Amino acid sequence: MITKSITQQMNISLVMACLLLTHQVATAQSSSTNSENENSTTLKNFTGVTESSSTSSSLKGILRQKKFEDDSVITDTKLKADEGSRSEYSMKFNLSFSGPPIGDLNNRKQPNPDGSIGTYDTRISGSISGRYRISPETALSLGSGVTALNPIQGVTRYDMNNPFIGYDISSKWMNLQLRNAFSLIDATNPDYMAVGETGGVTYANYAVYNVNQSKLALALESSLSYWFFNRGYVKSDKTAGTYSLAFYPYLKYNATSKLNINTSLAIQYMNPRAADNPSVLSNKTISQQLALGYAFSKDVYFSPNINFYPAKLTADSTTINFSTTFSLL
Does residue 283 share a domain with residue 171? Predict the structure, then answer.
């Protein structure tokens, strides 16, 4: 019942998004048509047939859409890209490459020291979403996760999975830049469906603090996720969790206005379904990341990184990866 409810809500939202887009295009087309009637000029070609010189301007009118002013509430390059386009309607892409261990480049699996439920194949994964900007600080998203497994050896599986509806808001208080994001997710990934998961809700917070206007910045990403299931726990579900908490503290050095060097820790906790007690939390092995971040523009951010486990620093548990965020329109 939960899956059907979530899916119905997403279908309604998709219809609403389509109606909004159709209304905008129709309005723009009507406006361009009026402009054409008032201002178009005609030219005679070599056959004597008249042509309207306003064809290209009409097309531009149809494609034109509202652009929100950049009020510079967010200046951090990563958060700026996460905010997405300033256009009223746009497409946003978050894509990452999760590579094999550097000690075994032919390995199809990434390290998974805790045996966690999920996809741990080497992969290209992320999300694709259509966005409607409500105001300079807020936006709605409707999208889906994407996954291509084992891209180095030849893709073994491609998924469009876990469709979602999201809402995010950006703000700033003194030197503290904030972005809060809420998502409602319908679980369609086979790895999660296998343990009875049907969907979930997620809240994520991103905070960046510039230290006394210097090139140093402190950042913290955190998230809380709660998952729905269509059956009780069975032993084959292994490490499946009811909810999870994650904290990613960062230390960042902004070498230039576009380039930064950063390091972060991944500190994650999960309430295991096997415990049958909502107050019980098990912690995952802490991992660390060393990364570069480069903003090609305010809408395009690219970050190669090395990920490893400080408590078990070996070539077989160290991977080279990258992530990118960009928007179109």
Answer: yes
Percent of the chain whose pLDDT exceeds 70? 80
222 phi/psi in degrees, rounded to 5: -145, 155
Length of the chain counted residue by residue: 329
Is residue 263 within 8 A of residue 288, CB to CB? The reply is yes
- Answer whether residue 124 is part of any domain: yes
Task: Specify whether 81 is located in the same domain as 36.
Answer: no
Cα distances (Å, whole numbers) of residue 78 to 47, 178, 249, 279, 329: 56, 12, 15, 34, 19
Is residue 324 classed as helix, strand or coil in its secondary structure? strand
- pLDDT band at 282; cut points 50, 70, 90: very high
The pLDDT of residue 149: 93
pLDDT digit string (tens) for 20-45? 444 443 444 344 444 444 444 333 34
- Would you list the DSSP string of 176-245? EEEEEEEEEEE---HHHHTTTEEEEEEEEEEEEEESTTSSEEEEEEEEEEEEEESS---GGGTT-EEEEE
